[in-house]
Amino acid sequence: MISFPHAKINLGLSVISKRPDGFHNLETVFYPLLLRDALEIIPSKENWFFQTGLQIPPGKEDNLVMIAYQMLKKKYPQITPLEIHLHKSIPLGAGLGGGSSDAAETLKLINNLFDLHIPGKEMDDNALKLGSDCPFFMQSSPCIARGRGEILEPVSLDLSAYSILLVHPEIRIETAWAYSMIKPALPENDLKKSILQPVQNWANTIRNDFESPVFEVYPAIRKIKEKLYMSGAIYAAMTGSGSTVFGIFKKSELPDSLEVENARQTVIR
After folding, report:
1. Catalytic residue among 8, 73, 225, 227
2. pLDDT tens per residue, range 10-65
3. Considering 133, 209, 225, 227, which one is annotated as catalytic?
4. Is the pTM of this model over 0.90?
5. Known catalytic residue at 190
6. Which domains are assigned to the chain?
7. N or C: the chain end with fewer CB closer than 10 Å?
8. What is the Cα–Cα distance from 166 to 6, expressed in whole angstroms?
């Protein structure tokens, strides 16, 4: 069986409070993107995981796929060994959710392959154990996310009339470090109301709390955002805790490329 885990961007991200469990309450909009990895699982005589495409540092996102497998295997002994092939196209440590999406798709593929018929609530609970944004990747629709990111409210949002330019510099932001730099606070503006306004208004009301500390330590990321606006972006922001910056453009005004060194650029049309 094969699937194609998709990326996401965050439209706004407010870190509201720190929770007793060590996580943070946040508010954001998750928007799915047609930038995809490929994940294939095949019954095998022994477990075998291999990865192609963008290279994953040992002990990072590749473990989420195997952790997802081991999680289900522990509860459902009818699951047999698997050959798992993951092809990475979504950059790592980039705020695009690639590792979480891969893990969520692993849960879904195994559930279908072995006819486990796991209830939706249990699947979502399993996803949350793997990562705060994993429950979003159990579906594929724009959502306002609250709590750790698992409280999802569908939002009517369609950016298909625009093009999105993703710029990912060769900088990996560690999520734990990024959160350690944030002072939680209530957002200045109501995100639910702001996201329903025209995209042209977003720059005035929709903020990502991680930009300030990340830009201070990595000024190259700030310059990418500035260049996106200089190149005609209607709205530009860092996604998640970084380091990818995206710009939303009218299709007729999308630049051929951004003059940024050592950065991967991807266009979502």
Report:
1. 8
2. 999 999 999 999 899 999 999 999 999 999 999 999 999 988 998 776 654 447 99
3. 133
4. yes
5. no
6. 2-154 (3.30.230.10), 162-268 (3.30.70.890)
7. C
8. 14
